[in-house]
From TrEMBL:
Record-annotated membrane-spanning stretches: none
Pfam families for this protein: Flavodoxin_1, ODP
CDD domains, alphabetized: flavodiiron_proteins_MBL-fold (cd07709)
Protein name as catalogued: MBL fold metallo-hydrolase
Domain of life (superkingdom): Bacteria
Gene3D superfamilies recorded: 3.40.50.360, Ribonuclease Z/Hydroxyacylglutathione hydrolase-like
InterPro entries: Flavodoxin/NO_synth, Flavoprotein-like_sf, Metallo-B-lactamas, ODP_dom, RibonucZ/Hydroxyglut_hydro, Rubredoxin-O_OxRdtase
A molecular function GO annotation: electron transfer activity
Length: 395
């Protein structure tokens, strides 16, 4: 995709990445890819907003040159130092060595740690402005959304918010970068999965940042990943506010691990019972087969959650332990949660579930249901009772 005009002097010079299979070394993106969005403001002075991942730096620099020709670049605005946005800085400085790098006081120590860059730095603080000619940029600090140096840049003339990772998503736009030229429904799950996995831990800080940005007029949102919101920025604003406030829909996610099918039978029994109780949305996930990012995405969406696992050498099924670790990090304190644990000769999973309940301060609908081996008639009755309690709890 070539450079794309957003406003009269503002252009997208980002790239799509279909080479990386695991975002942050963890989250699968091999099917849908991800975009690294960067921007050029071609005014009397030229400002570039963010770089891209270094594997795509050549393509990025070609796009910059296609817009500015032989002009020099005056400023590089660094909204976020995470290497998917900053690692192209070495190649950019090789091409434009006199650039003045704009960031805040927390930007530059991280920049030095990564790239040993200590010269031509221009520090900005909350509310500071930078005049490029026709355009004036204003800077707002958004600490811990999701790194300490994170900030956003606002073009006061065209009302464009360069929002860094805020309002981002997985899934590389195909053919067009704009919201009005894409199927927004296709971006809903990648946006929620991105938020839950990347931003979820700092949802409180994200909500503070959104409240701060609510005081400015926003005509277009240009995030670091995903779509450019020029037609309906309210769509992504509303979605992010809902996710940051941890608002949920009525529905239940059942995430389970199973070695020989016993815990799976319990999970399937719960799913049937929930449907019989009138729960419209029931999502069933095997943690050994589905990456936890997809499970967490639906957990973020739905009010109810069941977690089930067998014991494994006196502990819990390892794949469930991985999910519990992430859920402890992002918190599910706004959910109704139930647990079931299977064992053969001694327990173990229940101890891990109990520790999680205590650590994560979850709202438990009942005691952990213990099942020995294949669920028998009494276990099925207990599972049906558990489903009934969940259905009532999420209404």
């Amino acid at each position: 995709m070539n450079a794309v005009k957003i406003k009269e002097d503002i252009f997208w010079v980002g790239v799509n990445d279909y080479q990386t299979t695991l975002f942050e070394g963890m989250w699968p993106i091999e099917q849908e890819g991800v975009s690294y969005n960067a921007y050029v403001i071609n005014d009397e002075k030229v400002a570039i907003i963010d770089t891209v991942k270094s594997i795509k730096a050549d393509e990025y620099i070609e796009k910059i040159k296609s817009i500015i020709g032989n002009k020099k670049v005056d400023y590089l605005i660094v909204n976020h130092m995470e290497p998917d946005h900053s690692s192209g800085i070495i190649e950019l400085l090789a091409e434009y060595p006199d650039i003045k790098i704009v960031g805040n006081k927390k930007t530059f120590p991280i920049m030095n740690n990564f790239y040993q860059i200590t010269e031509n730095l221009h520090e900005v603080c909350e509310g500071d402005t930078l005049c490029l000619g026709k355009h004036t940029l204003q800077f707002f600090m958004t600490p811990m959304v999701h790194w300490p140096e994170s900030m956003v840049t606002y073009d006061t003339i065209d009302k464009v918010l360069f929002s860094m990772d805020v309002f981002g998503s997985f899934k590389a736009p195909v053919g067009s970068i704009f919201d009005d030229e894409n199927d927004l429904a296709a971006f809903e799950e990648p946006t929620r999965r991105y938020y839950a996995c990347i931003v979820g831990k700092v949802a409180g800080q994200a909500l503070k940042a959104l409240n701060k940005l609510g005081g400015i007029e926003i005509g277009t949102i240009c995030p670091s990943h995903g779509l450019i919101w020029r037609d309906n920025p309210k769509y992504i604003l509303d979605m992010y506010v809902k996710m940051s406030a941890k608002e949920t829909d009525p529905g239940v996610v059942i995430a389970y691990g199973s070695m020989y099918g016993c815990t799976q039978k319990a999970a399937e029994t719960l799913a049937i019972a929930l449907k019989n109780e009138g729960v419209g949305e029931v999502k069933l996930y095997n943690v050994a087969k589905t990456d936890i990012s997809f499970i967490i995405s639906d957990i973020w969406k739905y009010k109810g959650l069941f977690l089930g696992a067998p014991s494994y050498y006196g502990q819990i099924f390892p794949k469930m332990a991985n999910l519990l670790y992430k859920l402890s990090e992002i918190k599910v304190d706004n959910h109704k949660v139930g647990f079931f644990a299977d064992y053969s000769w001694s327990g173990g999973a229940d101890k891990n579930f109990s520790a999680f309940i205590e650590c994560a301060k979850v709202d438990v609908i009942d005691e952990i249901l213990m099942i020995k081996g294949t669920p028998d008639e009494q276990d099925v009755l207990a599972l049906n009772t558990l489903a009934k309690k969940m259905a009532e709890a999420i209404k």
